Amino acid sequence: MEPFVLRSPEVTLSVPTAADVDRVAEVCTDPDIARWTTVPSPYTRADAEGFITQFVVQGWQQERDFTWAVRAPGTVDGPVLGMMGVSIRAGEPGSPLSGEIGYWTAPDARGRGLTTAAGRLVVDWALDPDGLGLQRLQWLAFVGNWPSRRVAWKLGFRFEGTMRRHGLQRGRLLDDWIGAVLPDDVREPVEPWPAEAPAV
């Protein structure tokens, strides 16, 4: 599949290129990204080069991992404000096609609703029969990652529970939260925000 651009009045999603290597390397040294994702830590420029020239390029070529850089509206090559992607999940032959969403946001772009706006574009495409046509799109986050959970909640993901020692981060097993959205689900909050969540 050839990479393509997704747009809304709030954001533009375009595939990251070699021109984004320095910005990705800078952003991925952020302590919160290191804490809540599986990116290498410490993160180097070589890591950013490998991410863009190998993972991103091969993912699109193999139609397995679809990754976009989140940018300001109206530009396909502006500064990277975040990253958003969908990965196909392998299942039994003949089983319904499912995927997993993933995202991070640059520190200087947080609190502006950009990740939620980008997520709406990607969720709609992933579940649309004329898009990827997934029958289930799931969200995973390490337990305690409330910013990620808030985005998923706004996008209509139904919280399904906690999976103990399910997530692997740089050699450590961690507990995962899991949620999912299906094609016919309402893509807006449908559950109360958890009472135990800290104020944000």
TrEMBL record:
It comes from the Bacteria. InterPro entries: Acyl_CoA_acyltransferase (IPR016181), GNAT_dom (IPR000182), Ribosomal_N-acetyltransferase (IPR051908). Residues 19-175 form the N-acetyltransferase domain. This is GNAT family N-acetyltransferase. It comes from Isoptericola chiayiensis.
